[in-house]
Design a protein that fits this description.
- It is a single chain.
- The protein folds into two domains: 2-47 and 286-419, no CATH class; 71-267, no CATH class.
- It is 50% helix and 15% strand.
- It has 14 helices and twelve strands.
- The protein has helices at 2-11, 13-44, 80-92, 140-143, 155-158, 168-175, 223-233, 253-260, 277-320, 322-330, 335-351, 354-366, 379-408, 413-419, and strands at 55-62, 97-104, 115-116, 119-120, 131-136, 163-167, 185-187, 196-202, 216-220, 238-244, 265-266, 269-276.
- Strands 1, 2, 3, 4, 5, 6, 7, 8, 9, 10, 11 and 12 form a twelve-stranded mixed sheet that branches.
- Strand 7 (185-187) and strand 8 (196-202) form a beta hairpin.
- Helix 2 packs across helix 13 (379-408), helix 9 (277-320) packs across helix 13 and helix 10 packs across helix 14 (413-419).
- The longest helix has 44 residues, at 277-320.
- 26% of the residues are buried.
């Protein structure tokens, strides 16, 4: 039967040639759209490595000279960094506060980033690469719910020790797939004698829902280092994150701040504002989500056009052969046999595009056109997009053939012979 269908396709090659070209172009476009959407959706729903529910950023400020409430330097008995730590303790003592942390470039959903090189203390050769870096207090991992790579809490592993915590991606980059980083030593410069202990390995961490995880490390400083960082970068640049206890509502924050009153100011350091991280997330992702909506709308519009285009093509093609189908009915073919013949003819015509599409995909991969950074091009990705495109096309072809065949089966033999 396949041989017979191929002979029919060849005999009608002039009209089938245009249909073949249309199918090839459309299935290629479908594959590109489905592959792009798959990467976006797959990346979006992967774990972020942190949790911002009920987390707020406390923006610190400094009272300037000449402003009401300013304390002269001669009257100060504590360092500015100590004032920040005391202010953090005041916030932590509130009943509705679960935990507070301090960090430098450690706030998520911001454009502030810091990069640094890091080297294994026991290696003869070094990886020439920069890694994302944040200086954080141990409470940071509790506030953002950052877990150890096996899902355990990080705080008990860290305790009050100083050193660094690296992400699982960085562990793989430094020690390979099977190597373990915990308990190892690293340093900022290959010739330096100052080594830092790897206290733990966190799970993979991503910057946002639309980005892939990257190698990351967190430095946990000593108290003196923390005070120095605060004073060097100024309190305004310190990321103070607060996790509220379950049940706390964002609309209650204003009342909480008013209730704390003077405790929100320590000498010249004060709480300037409090912003939910969920609000910061919406702002930082707005452009990406707008682009995603436009992309989804464009794909939907294209699918509608493809849907009606393919159905219309095969509808008209089948309708034009109504006389032939009617004759087959008159000669004894039933609806099932006729439907199988016409569907197989359309599907074989579609199948003939497979080698050409495979060549197209290989060329796209050769020139690195698909996004393989966020999602490697694996067999399951190929099967999902390639198979999905052809299943959609097959469904449209079948639907385009079904109605004319149904109409043909109602023809009387005399009418069918008249068509022929």
């Amino acid at each position: 039967m396949i041989k017979h269908i191929l002979k029919i396709i060849w005999n009608q090659r002039r009209s089938n040639g245009w249909i073949f070209a249309e199918l090839l172009v459309v299935v290629g476009i479908l594959w590109v759209m489905m592959d792009s959407l798959l990467v976006d959706k797959y990346t979006y729903y992967q774990p972020l490595g942190f949790n911002i529910d009920n987390v707020y950023k406390v923006q610190l400020g400094v009272i300037m000279p000449g402003t009401s409430g300013y304390v002269e330097d001669s009257l100060l008995i504590t360092r500015q960094g100590e004032d920040v730590l005391r202010l953090v303790d005041n916030i932590r003592q509130e009943d509705k506060v679960e935990e507070v942390s301090l960090s430098h470039v450690g706030c998520v959903y911001t454009e502030n980033r810091s990069w640094s090189t890091l080297f294994r203390a026991d290696a003869d050769t070094f990886i020439k690469a920069g890694f994302r870096q944040s200086t954080v207090t141990p409470e940071y991992f509790t506030v953002l719910r950052i877990k150890e790579k096996e899902g355990k809490e990080l705080s008990p592993l860290i305790g009050q020790r100083t050193g660094i915590v690296i992400s699982a991606d960085m562990e793989r980059a430094f020690y390979g797939e099977k190597g373990s980083a915990r308990g190892q030593f690293v340093k900022y410069h290959p010739d330096s004698s100052d080594e830092m202990l790897v206290l733990a390995v966190s799970g993979s961490v991503r910057e946002s829902e639309y980005k892939e995880s990257i190698p990351f490390f967190y430095q946990i400083p000593t108290r003196e280092q923390l005070l120095g960082d605060i004073e060097e970068n100024q309190p305004q640049a310190v990321d103070c994150l607060v996790r509220m206890k379950p049940g706390f509502r964002a609309e209650d924050m204003e009342a909480l701040l008013q209730g704390m009153g003077d405790r929100l100011t320590v000498n010249n350091v004060y709480v300037s504002s409090v912003v939910p991280l969920s609000e910061m997330r919406s702002q930082i992702l707005k452009s990406r989500e707008d682009n995603m909506k436009k992309k989804t709308a464009l794909v939907g519009f294209m699918l509608i056009n493809v849907f009606f285009g393919i159905i219309g093509t095969f509808w008209l093609r089948t309708q034009a052969r109504q006389g032939e189908m009617g004759l087959r009915v008159a000669l004894g073919s039933n609806r099932r046999q006729l439907s199988r013949l016409m569907n197989l003819e359309g599907l074989i015509l579609l199948a003939l595009t497979i080698p050409f599409l495979l060549v197209f995909i290989m060329n796209m991969l050769y020139f690195d056109m698909p996004d393989t950074y966020r999602l490697p091009y694996t067999w399951w990705r190929f099967a999902a997009t390639f198979g999905g495109a052809y299943l959609l096309m097959a469904g449209m072809i079948t639907l385009g053939i079904w109605f004319p065949i149904r109409k043909t089966m109602k023809m009387k033999p005399a009418e069918a012979l008249h068509y022929e």
